[in-house]
Amino acid sequence: MCCQQNYVFCVICPFFYLKEKSQDCMYLQYCKVCQSYKAPRSHHCRKCNRCVMKMDHHCPWINNCCGYQNHASFTLFLLLAPLGCIHASFIFVMTMYTQLYNRISFGWSSVKIDMSAAKRDPRTIIPFGLSAFAASLFALGLALGTTIAVGMLFIIQMKVILTNKTSIESWIEEKAKDRIQYYQTDETFIFPYDMGSKWKNFKQVFTWSGIPEGDGLDWPVREGCHRYSLTIEQLKQKADKRVRSVRYRAIEDYSGVCCPVTKGVKTFFTTPCTEEPRIALSKGDLILATRGLKHWMYGEKILNSAGDASDMLNSHPYNADVQH
């Protein structure tokens, strides 16, 4: 929206993101898809097709983004799911043990389990045959696998929550360190939303009411930090990406399919394992590559001959049949 009118329309909430000064727009990122300025800590999700407040990631299992409104609920889900799987694993193990106790001699003399009830009435309500044993064993493997996988995700989430970050912001902080080291500058990037206390950071997400603190638009910052320190760093990283990118011209057509069979066996089997859409290219198209693999590159397609950065698509992978 128009900065001269002292407001910025926020596509993630049904109200205007009011600003005290129109100059604040220079510190905000502009979303070309939603055609509005993004609030601090907000990011655009291609799957949800909208900007999300304090976006952490898009979760395909809940078919939604994890962000400001549901970060606490999602983290509790990551905690309760492994606990439920541990409970299910215990049930599966005890079920298989009690059913096989009189059929196979395990030689577990040290195991003290009262089997008197099973000996008095060996009949089972549900027949426990070979198929039931196989199903229980398979379910036990799934339960243990889910416990490990989801439990690791819970640990990762708690680490970023205790520093009042998101997964995206942790990545931004790492890129900030790389940028400063690459240019050998004297500047120091300090993450502005870390309150300096794990308990204070914890309360930013978890509350007794279940409603997170704040409004998802304006955030308290630590002493000595600018309220837009993070967005300023993001703008610097985007500008740096433009400077360090390399321009290429496509020498072959590419339809944008996920796994191109006609581009060679190596290209087919080295397809990036991402959900990002591929850029369809025609012979002669200009591409601005920001990073690359051996057979694939990440970058932007230049839509006009002048190469104006404002007329480029978002960064997506494309096949590397291009010339410098």
TrEMBL record:
It is a multi-pass membrane protein. It comes from the Eukaryota. The keyword Lipid biosynthesis does not apply. One of its GO terms (cellular component) is membrane. It catalyses: L-cysteinyl-[protein] + hexadecanoyl-CoA = S-hexadecanoyl-L-cysteinyl-[protein] + CoA. GO terms for molecular function: protein-cysteine S-palmitoyltransferase activity. Pfam families: DHHC. It is found in: Membrane. Keywords: Acyltransferase, Membrane, Transferase, Transmembrane, Transmembrane helix. InterPro entries: Palmitoyltrfase_DHHC, PFA4/ZDH16/20/ERF2-like. Its EC number is 2.3.1.225. The DHHC domain is required for palmitoyltransferase activity. PANTHER family: PALMITOYLTRANSFERASE ZDHHC16. Belongs to the DHHC palmitoyltransferase family. This is Palmitoyltransferase. It comes from Meleagris gallopavo (Wild turkey).
